[in-house]
């Protein structure tokens, strides 16, 4: 089968290779025929060589996927061949550290993930532990199901995090997949949402409006301060969700939060940034981060999708064959694509 393989550490070293099909699933494992797999921002960081999550080259990339269960390991119960599934990317966690013992295995220091340290889903087949599987609701197709991973990241950031109350004002910086999912979760909670992005992401901002944002701002064209003033009656926003991984956006979040506002960092910078942390002191801002997700966030994200509160399909701008991988990575990296999904494999 053809697979997108990271062949070595460092920048680049990404290629489409012919690799053998995975061996039959072992105890506790299942084999999935991949029907759809999305490129994630962290795949770009793997390509660039600045990913902060352990990788073990050579490995097949791809951790946002959905497909059909085609083979089960000897002791797997509760599943059947033919089941429509998606799977968490956490593959191994130690089970003994404080994070694991409190259910936050996404934060385990020994966590190793599918598509990073184990072969992932940018190929026809992949093998994953059955305990990481989630059944796709009937109303969620494979392509939307493949985006459960980023949707669950935002579920974890918002629903598992400090939450959003109905009527609160929310500033979301960055109109990529994380920002566009954040818009939908914030609206599902009854918030008023202001989404920001750059001129080059105008089409994404337009999609943000379609998905429920109350207002969008092109921050390299418009002054944000008077707009936020107007949006919040001069109070500042209750909640900021930083989804862009851009230093200027992070500082805007600090600047425009109200006193005791809540700041959640979702985007990744890939390098240290300069941040005006005095704002955190003067305004007693509650600053927190959100990383990956865990089982209940996946269940929640799929429930939100099944209920139609969160839609993944509108985010998919490009549906490509795995042969077109470099075009897909390029279009995603340059912002021409919102979300690229591979849906044809060989
Ligand atoms: Zn991802
Ligand atoms: Zn652990």
Summed up:
This protein is of the alpha/beta class. 28% of the residues lie in helices and 27% in strands. It has 2 domains: 2-147 and 312-344, Quinone Oxidoreductase, Chain A, domain 1, CATH 3.90.180.10; 153-289, 3-Layer(aba) Sandwich (Rossmann fold).
Describe the structure.
- This protein is an alpha/beta fold and 346 residues long.
- It folds into two domains: 2-147 and 312-344, Medium-chain alcohol dehydrogenases, catalytic domain (Quinone Oxidoreductase, Chain A, domain 1); 153-289, Rossmann fold (3-Layer(aba) Sandwich).
- It has eleven helices and 18 strands.
- The strands form four sheets. Strands 3, 5, 6, 9, 10, 17 and 18 form a seven-stranded mixed beta sheet that branches.
- The longest helix is centred in the middle third of the chain and has 15 residues, at 148-162.
- It starts with a strand and ends with a strand.
- The mean pLDDT is 96.
List the helices and strands and how they pair.
Blueprint: E1 2-6, E2 14-18, E3 29-38, H1 41-48, E4 59-60, E5 64-72, E6 84-87, E7 90-92, H2 98-101, E8 112-113, E9 125-129, E10 133-135, H3 142-146, H4 148-162, E11 169-173, H5 177-188, E12 192-197, H6 202-210, E13 215-218, H7 224-231, E14 237-242, H8 247-256, E15 257-265, H9 278-282, E16 286-289, H10 295-306, E17 316-321, H11 325-333, E18 339-344
Parallel strand pairs: 11-12, 11-14, 12-13, 14-15, 15-16, 17-18
Antiparallel strand pairs: 1-2, 1-4, 3-5, 3-9, 3-18, 5-6, 6-10, 7-8
Helix pairs in contact: 4-5, 4-10
The structure holds zinc ion (2 copies).
């Amino acid at each position: 089968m053809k697979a997108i393989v990271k062949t070595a550490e460092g920048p680049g070293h990404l290629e489409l290779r012919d690799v053998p099909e995975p061996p039959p699933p072992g105890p506790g494992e299942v084999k999935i025929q991949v029907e759809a797999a999305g490129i994630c921002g962290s795949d770009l960081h793997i390509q660039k060589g600045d990913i902060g999550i352990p990788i073990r080259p050579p490995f097949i990339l791809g951790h946002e996927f959905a497909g059909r269960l085609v083979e089960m390991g000897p002791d797997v119960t509760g599943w059947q061949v033919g089941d429509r599934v998606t799977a968490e990317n956490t593959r191994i966690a130690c089970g003994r550290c404080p994070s694991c013992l409190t259910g936050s295995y996404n934060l385990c220091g020994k966590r190793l993930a599918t598509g990073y340290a184990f072969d992932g889903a940018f190929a026809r087949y992949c093998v994953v532990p059955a305990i990481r599987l989630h059944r796709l609701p009937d109303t969620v197709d494979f392509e939307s199901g493949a985006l459960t991973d980023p949707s669950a990241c935002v579920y974890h950031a918002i629903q598992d995090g400090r939450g959003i109350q109905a009527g609160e004002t929310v500033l979301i910086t960055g109109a990529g997949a994380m920002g566009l999912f954040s818009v939908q979760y914030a609206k599902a909670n009854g918030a008023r949402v202001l989404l920001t992005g750059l001129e080059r992401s105008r089409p994404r901002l337009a999609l943000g409006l379609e998905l429920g944002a109350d207002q969008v701002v092109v921050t390299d064209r418009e002054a944000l301060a008077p707009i936020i003033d107007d949006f919040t009656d001069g109070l500042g926003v209750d909640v900021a969700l930083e989804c862009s991984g851009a230093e200027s956006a992070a500082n805007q979040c600090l600047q425009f939060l109200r006193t005791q506002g809540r700041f959640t960092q979702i985007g990744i910078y890939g390098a240290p940034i300069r941040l005006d942390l005095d704002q955190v002191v003067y305004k007693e801002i509650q600053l927190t981060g959100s990383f990956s997700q865990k089982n209940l966030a996946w269940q929640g994200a799929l429930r939100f999708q099944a209920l139609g509160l969160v839609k993944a399909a509108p985010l998919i701008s490009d549906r490509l064959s795995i042969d077109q991988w470099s075009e897909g990575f390029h279009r995603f990296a340059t912002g021409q694509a919102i979300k690229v999904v591979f849906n044809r494999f060989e």
